[in-house]
Write a structure and sequence with these properties.
By secondary structure, the chain is an alpha/beta fold. Helix content is 32%, strand content 23%. Strand 2 and strand 3 (28-37) form a beta hairpin.
């Protein structure tokens, strides 16, 4: 299990190398953008994009927001998007595109902490996969937590959801398969919920729903709500959100180190 091809990308930054990588998933070639530090890799951030096709595509600038000298950041494109083979199934077999990439990186850097960040559509992409992978935490940012809520909220996306998944009543099983909450348990990795109160693309009720379910299940989580922000925070609010996310990762890693020391 490894990347089968690497293509150097024309992104010049002092401490990292950008490459478009290809890897095999279910017999097809899937691509993603990899940002590798020049120094040793101590932390891995998996950025799960939102949108579909060119909307919400993985960009170098987005990966760089999570970088530091010892952090590797990777964003899978998902099958059927941006040169990846196959068809995007919107939380179907494209979930394997996330899982396989993480297992490859875990094999390459077994001592590095892994944190997943699911943005928008990527929120549910992460919730459906994170608890079965070697990750330290999951950050859901402006993310979808329930596909039925998404269907109800985004009238403009119902046509796309019907084409890709079906109608919630007529294709009930397809929606049940995309219900992440039933797979989360009390011992699942901790979750940080980040959301804007004025988000009209993914309403904050998606965050409230997840918060309620995690309380019921007993999963450790924290919330960071910016009530005056939309789907993408304004620059000063983005700085605050990124600082909170990075501090969360550091705190989780320190707790893990303490747990290892006390064994």
């Amino acid at each position: 299990m490894d990347f089968i091809n690497k293509k150097r990308m024309p992104v010049e930054v002092p401490e990292h190398v950008f490459e478009e990588v290809t890897y095999k998933v279910d017999g097809i070639n899937v691509r993603g953008l990899l940002m590798t530090p020049q120094k040793s890799v101590e932390r891995i951030v998996i950025y799960l994009r939102g949108g579909k096709g060119q909307v919400g595509k993985v960009r170098a600038a987005r990966l760089m927001q999570f970088s530091d000298p010892n952090t590797l950041v990777f964003g899978p494109y998902y099958r059927g998007n941006n040169g990846s083979e196959g068809k995007d199934e919107f939380y179907g077999r494209d979930l394997n595109d996330v899982a396989v990439a993480i297992r490859i990186l875990n094999m390459m850097y077994p001592k590095a902490y892994i944190h997943m960040v699911g943005f928008s559509r990527g929120g549910l992409q992460g919730l459906l996969t994170y608890q079965d992978l070697p990750v330290s935490s999951y950050i859901i940012w402006g993310g979808v937590s329930d596909i039925k809520l998404m269907y109800e909220e985004r009238v403009d996306l119902r046509g796309m959801l019907k084409r890709m998944i079906g109608h919630p009543r007529k294709n009930e099983m397809a929606y049940k398969e995309r219900d992440a909450v039933v797979t989360i348990h009390a011992d699942s990795p901790p979750i940080l919920i980040v959301h804007g109160g004025k988000d009209v693309q993914v309403g904050i009720h998606q965050a409230y729903y997840l918060e309620k379910q995690l309380k019921r299940i007993g999963t450790f989580f924290k919330t960071f709500y910016q009530m005056d922000e939309g789907h993408v925070p304004r620059p000063y609010a983005m700085k605050e959100a990124l600082s909170t996310v990075k501090q969360w990762m550091t705190d989780i890693e320190r707790q893990n180190l303490k747990a290892e020391y006390n064994k």
